[in-house]
Structure formats: C-alpha cells, structure tokens
Design a protein that fits this description.
Elements (H helix, E strand, L loop, with lengths): L2 H13 L11 H25 L3 E7 L5 H8 L3 E8 L2 H13 L6 E5 L12 E6 L6 H5 L3 H12 E12 L2 H9 L5 E6 L6 E11 L4 E10 L5 E10 L3 H10 L2 E7 L13 E8 L1
Parallel strand pairs: 1-2, 1-4, 2-3, 4-5
Antiparallel strand pairs: 5-11, 6-7, 7-8, 8-9, 10-11
Length: about 280
Amino acid sequence: MSEADDKGSIIHNAFEGVESPENYRSKEDIEVYRRMLLEKTEAQSGYIQRHIGDTGNVFEAGTGNGRLLLSLALRGAIEKGLGVDVAQSRIDFANLWAKDLALDARISFKTMDLLAFPEPSASYSMCICITGAFGYFPFLRENGDSLTLDYFNRLLDSNGWLLLELYNHPVNKRRCLEEKDNVYRHWEELPEQDPFSHYLSERTFDPASRVMRHRKIFVRRSDGFIDDSRMEALRLYERGEVMELLESRGFEVLRFDSDWRDTVFKDGDEVSVVLARKK
C-alpha cells in the first residue's frame, strides 16, 4: 500500500460505519438522533441565511450524514444540493434521511474522492466544507488544500460563495506539546441521543507539519461494544495562512468569525468560520 493509499484509509476509516443501522436499537432511536442533528445545525443554517440568503444549487464536501444540506432544504434556503463524502455508510444514512423527508428529488448524496477532482457535471452557487474537514486535504495530498480550492473555484458560478469551518484546537495542541510522549488523552461524554455513550480521545500534534492526529475509541450505548478503529488527521491553520491561501486561489474573504453567531475571530479561538466569494 502506498503512503497516499494509507492516508486515504485513515480518513475513510475514521467515519465509515459510524451511522450504520446496527448502532441503533430501533427506528425511534434513529429519529431521535436525526432530530438532535437538525437542532445542532440550526446555528449553521441560520448563519448561511443571514449572510447569503436563499440560494440555488449547493455543493458540500465532507457532507457526513447530510444534516446541513437537509436543514437548509427544510428551511427553503436552497433549491438543490449535492453532498459528497468518502464514507459509504454515512452517504446511505443521508440518502435514506432525504427520502424519508421527501427531499430526495432535490437533495442527493454520493461517495466521492474529492482529490480525484472529477469533471463537474453542474455548476453551484455555493460550496461548503465544515466541521474541520478542509484540514484533511493537505494531509492526504501535497498542496491538497490549494488543489481543493481550485476545484471549488471550477464548481462555482461567477461570484459564487465559499463557506469553510476550520478547527484550530489551540488547547488540544498545547496539551499535546506539554505531554512527555506528545499524546494527550481524555474521555468525552456524548449526548444521550447519540448511539455511542463515550469516547476516549488520543491526540498528537507535529509542529513541523502542523498535523494533528486524533484516535477515537467509542463505546456503543446499546451493548457496550468497543469501536477502536477510528483515527483522523488534519492540518491546523493560522488566520493569516487562511487569508493568504484563499486570496491566492481566487477568493475574496468577506467574514472571518469564531462561531456561527457572528463573533469576530481572535487569535486563540477554537474555530474559524470563513465566508468568501469567488472573484
């Protein structure tokens, strides 16, 4: 297996199977989980409607379970949407959810290796990449962030919108560097609606590459099953790097916030929410 294939497996395995049917005790558990997902997406959907308004055809990279596109469609904020992800189980979850909401004629999901840069079959008014997923691309491929932004540029209409959410992990980064073995371990409790009750985090950070690796060990709520197969790796950015990168790939940055409530970003904030437009 090549290094590229190995890196691809890391990202794929981080999420494959997370929302598989066997993780839920009943259909009601799935509905409870879906409602929780929509509730946690309200701030993101609200941000988009506040600053962009209603829009046309939307492309989401790293769509996961599809919650954002479905939330926007339920609000009437988008006409159509395509969400792509590498995890087939998550795409299956999203497509079934869209069907159950009678949105599958407008909102669709499919597996895609974005770094293969498939020829666009449509143009879009907005490209979205949230929950830190943009940080995977430079880990997976040299200059993967620049190449991905170039691809978004190709997908977008004139003056199309780009929305990124980056995870900065200032506390986790500091804690890794403080540990003698560079491994920061801690337990996290998940919401009661989640099919998993807890997970153990093991994080490492390499200052040279600015890549944080995060191994997760999940405990399934229904039967105590231990899922220790999850690990992700993402590149962390400073604000100036993001501004320069976007400007160099043909985007004008319009907002740089630290959350979905319009709080202006300050160095040391956990999250960067970046709204840009194609020049």
